[in-house]
Amino acid sequence: MKVPPPVLRNLKEAKGGWIKRSDRAAMKVPASALPRSAELFIAHPDDDPVREGAAARKQLSRASLPVAFGPQGAIFNAPVTITIPYDSGLVETQGLKETDLKVHDWNPRAQAWEALISRVNAADKTVGADVTHFSIYQVLAPGAAETVAVSTDLNGDGVTDAADVGLVTDQAKGLSACTTGDINKDGACNVADIQMIVIKTLGKK
User: Fold this and answer.
1) pTM for this one?
2) Cβ 44 vs Cβ 23: under 8 Å
3) Mean pLDDT per 10-residue section of the chain, whose length is 205 residues
4) How far apart are CA 169 and CA 148, in angstroms?
5) Which residues, in sequence order, are CB contacts of 18 under 8 Å at separation 6+?
6) Which side of the chain, N or C, has fewer Cβ within a 10 Å radius?
7) Whether the Cβ atoms of residue 61 and residue 147 lie closer than 8 Å to each other
8) Which whole-number Å values give the CA distances from 165 to 140, 177, 189, 193, in the listed order?
């Protein structure tokens, strides 16, 4: 999945408004929901193997990129509606059900994903939820067991080990083409693929 550029906008406390990124990730802020006027943003967070591992342990598969709505930690006087686009290709290849898709909130203290009451718009390929604070959010669904079961024996030696991690690392650095290292088929060789190898090696399916 291609990472879109961030979007920032100053919203007035009394007016609220819409903020929408090029991939249709968006927030709708009601009038007077903000405790004060502020610059709000929608951006892509840094890769974090802790978030990836937490999803795998709960057997959750990702259907979207993670999205950072900010400033993180901001709390509202009234719920703000966020919308996140999901990748129908990931849904199909992982055998997920659109009806199971939910926006999940990353809780850094608990180091866990927490499912929110969500609304799936299958026609628009988006999932929406009402939130009372800003955080990192992602569309996830049950099914990580199938995702982790994807072959992680990249060099074909019969085992998943450090040599396979090395292959992904080389491809992530651009030392070789990103082919076998894109284990989760998101179009990039990165820490998420390395995390899948680690999970497989530790037997955390």
Assistant:
1) 0.71
2) no
3) 91 92 97 92 94 91 96 92 96 93 96 97 97 97 58 76 83 82 75 73 55
4) 18
5) 26, 27, 28, 29
6) C
7) yes
8) 25, 15, 11, 9
